[in-house]
Amino acid sequence: MRSSTPWFATGAFALAFMSCPRTVPSVSTVPVAPAGVLATWAAPGSADTVRVLNGGYGSAIARHPKHGDRFFLLTDRGPNYATATEEGVAFPKPDFAPQIGLFVLQGDSLVRQGVITLKDAQCRPLTGLPLPAGRPGATGEVGYAVDGTPLPADTNGVDTEGLVANADGSFWVSDEYGPYLFRVNAEGCTTKRLTAGAGLPRVAAKRRVNRGFEGLTSPDGGKTLVAMFQAPLDNPKAAGRASRLARILVVEPTGATRQYAYLLEDKGFGVSDILWMGGSRYLVLERDGKWIGDSTAVKRFYAIDLKDATDLSDPADGATGRLVDGKTLEELTAGAADPAAALAAAGLRPVSKVLALDIVQAAPGYHHDKLEGATRVSSNTVAIINDDDFGVTEADGGLGTKHAPGSSTPDRNELLLLRVPRP
Question: What is the pLDDT of residues 320-341, one digit of tens each?
Fold first, then answer.
């Protein structure tokens, strides 16, 4: 919902939070200005045309490290929808290159002023097409054009989800194919990539399909990385789907790693992002897949602390990670009514967790389903961005327009600003 009078001013909105926090409304929204159409599609024999919007900037958001009125917004792999086959994914714009958009507050809108196309180590544009079968990180998905034509796999395909903006103009990006953590320079060219067994624990390869590194933050300007899996690992699959243990991975500047357990409120929920809040404290955005407006929708910030949590790393770096009496951590907690107690019985402790803000209650007029990106604006204020899926979704086995229930307006990116009470 929008405050009656916009509280921000171009180039100075962040200063308003820090200098006069009590004069700023606790909730405000800023629309992302439309940027045209990527593609159009009309099914044979249909008079209805679906527009693939030039949006999708909702996978992650990072505040510009030097300019308070600017944000970097990240797309995912590109517009797509599930086909009738279990492994099939259709790509209405198969040549789409995942990208970082630079957005600036102008008046009461967030306006795109630049695009950084993500590229491989040879500075060739990446795509979001699935990896070929057999390649480490492959999801088993098969890409198709909207007319059913098979698409080639991409050995360097990425599904980008998390973002850290560094002061030198470079970025760290997280992905949920591999999963990967990779660094790009100011031109978007990959300069470093961490993968399972090569910079990341081998157990990371057990990520659930499309549930890899969804959240990414840094407590020290990109030197240390803190990534979160969206869901429990398929470690093995049956146990992961019955567990509520989502892993947090810390990568130190030395290359050493640590792992911690975060316990979801429900096995059907997932993590969208993580924000560093100072010291060992973080905010985690946990949610379901329902639209705000549904009385049962869940979108919440939880305050967590790593300080007293157990490092769950496996010294041997085995493929299934640390074991307890021969069980993986996912098996140990699968189906447990009290997974914290199951961990405690093994001498292990998850991160502490306290509800910081119920977003549905705080912003009931923010009618979106996928709240995926979040970033700090001030000590107690955060910005959230929704993933609008480029305004498209699956409809009757084909391409349709994505919109909120009861609305005919395509879903669009919209910035939500919230003050988060300190726990």
Answer: 999 999 999 999 999 999 999 9
